[in-house]
Every structure is written in C-alpha cells, then in structure tokens.
Amino acid sequence: MTNKIIEFFKANIGNRMGENSPSLLAKWLDGKLVSAEFGSLGFEFEVKPEFTNPAMILHGGVASAMMDEVIGATVYSLDKGAFYASVNLNVDFLNPAKIGEIILVKSSIVRNGNTIVHAECQITNEKGDIIAKSVSNMVKTSFTMK
Fold this sequence. Notes:
- The protein is of the alpha+beta class.
- The protein has helices spanning about 5-10, 15-20, 25-30, 60-75; strands spanning about 30-35, 40-45, 85-95, 100-110, 115-125, 130-140.
- Strands 1-2-4-5-6-3 form a six-stranded antiparallel sheet.
C-alpha cells in the first residue's frame, strides 16, 4: 500500500516548512526538509536571532518547539487518518547552538501504536554534537487536520 503522505514529503525534500505546513509555528520556524522515510523526518534550521535567549544561544523553548513540530510531522507522515497531539515532551539540553549555525532536527518513531505513538528526536549541529534530545508520546484525538 502506498503512503501518499510520505511520498509528498519525499517529493518536497529541499523545500522549507513555510511553503507547505498547516502549522503556523512551523511556518515561523521555517526549517528545510532534508530527509523523509517512513517513521523518520529530518529538517535543517538556521539559528536566527529571534530563536535565542539573552545569552544569544538557541532558546530551550524554541528547541523544544522544533522537536515537537518535527515529531508531529513525522506522526502525520505515518498516514494514520487521525490528528495526534502531544501528551508529553521530555527534553535534555546538552550543548549550545549559536546564531547562524545550521542544526539538524531528526525524528524517529519508536512505537507506532494505534492510540499512542512514541517518538524520539535529536538536534545536532554540523559537527555532529548533540544540542538537545527528546522523547514524546502522541495520542490519537477526535480532531481532524484543517
């Protein structure tokens, strides 16, 4: 069975989130899709000044939002026919990312359940240092995508 959503993502590698995402937050973050396979998506983001805290490094809330958006898009790409919402997002912040750095946010589905989907996500810099990592549970809702 062909998964039309993952095929859409594959066809859009190299495009920015702002071009196709139904999420206004994803449009603001405006990452570039760099990889797409069943159960995993990767997006590159440039650390912009508006993404930083007073120390001028990537703000933890923005890093968390990036991971939550990428996990959400990955769960959507599973083509489960329902909207899944975050139950939790547990984040570890391990290294700073500075203005102008390009970071990779990559997700993977650990458990693809019908009601609960469990995912992991990592942010790495161009040297491969882990900036942050997270785990999340997404729950099936009665909402539909608009």
